[in-house]
Amino acid sequence: MSTIMVLNGPNLNLLGSREPEQYGHETLADVEALCADAAASLGHKVECHQSNHEGALIDLIHEAGRRIKAGEVLGVVFNPGAYTHTSIALHDAIKGAEVPVIEVHISNVHAREAFRHHSYISPVATGIVVGMGVQGYVLGIQGLVHKTNR
């Protein structure tokens, strides 16, 4: 049984109360439970982490890279939040640590403000799920398992 890391970036701790018209009414705890169930149904477990700090997310990606090489972790399902559009450092961490990442966004970022249309994460992502609500995390987990053939 491999572990799938689920990482959530800035402000995702506010799920359920922040702009519910964009992000829905599910809380981060709801998302984490959904991910645990989805992973278990595929024979895996999850570790969920959320941080509002870019460096902490980079450290988790580096950790994932080490644990992938050790055969402990399958990959990462990652909602980088606003860092999607600003963080070259997260891009470099994913690329440098050689981590399979499924990028997930609850809302359709392409139907929103123009600054949300560009992702620094997408070029190094194994796959992308956009605009499917919190169900996108389930699709991300399924996609990661499929893409890594595990």
UniProtKB/TrEMBL annotation:
Pathway: Metabolic intermediate biosynthesis; chorismate biosynthesis; chorismate from D-erythrose 4-phosphate and phosphoenolpyruvate: step 3/7. The keyword Lyase applies. InterPro entries: DHquinase_II (IPR001874), DHquinase_II_CS (IPR018509), DHquinase_II_sf (IPR036441). Keywords: Amino-acid biosynthesis, Aromatic amino acid biosynthesis, Lyase. It is an enzyme of class 4 (lyase). The active site is at 23 (proton acceptor), 105 (proton donor). Its EC number is 4.2.1.10. GO terms for biological process: amino acid biosynthetic process; aromatic amino acid family biosynthetic process; chorismate biosynthetic process; quinate catabolic process. The record marks 18 as: Transition state stabilizer. It holds the Pfam family DHquinase_II. GO terms for molecular function: 3-dehydroquinate dehydratase activity. Catalyzes a trans-dehydration via an enolate intermediate. Homododecamer. NCBIfam families: aroQ (TIGR01088), PRK05395.1-2 (NF003805), PRK05395.1-3 (NF003806), PRK05395.1-4 (NF003807). This is 3-dehydroquinate dehydratase. It comes from Marinomonas transparens. The lineage of its organism: Bacteria, Pseudomonadati, Pseudomonadota, Gammaproteobacteria, Oceanospirillales. The gene is aroQ.
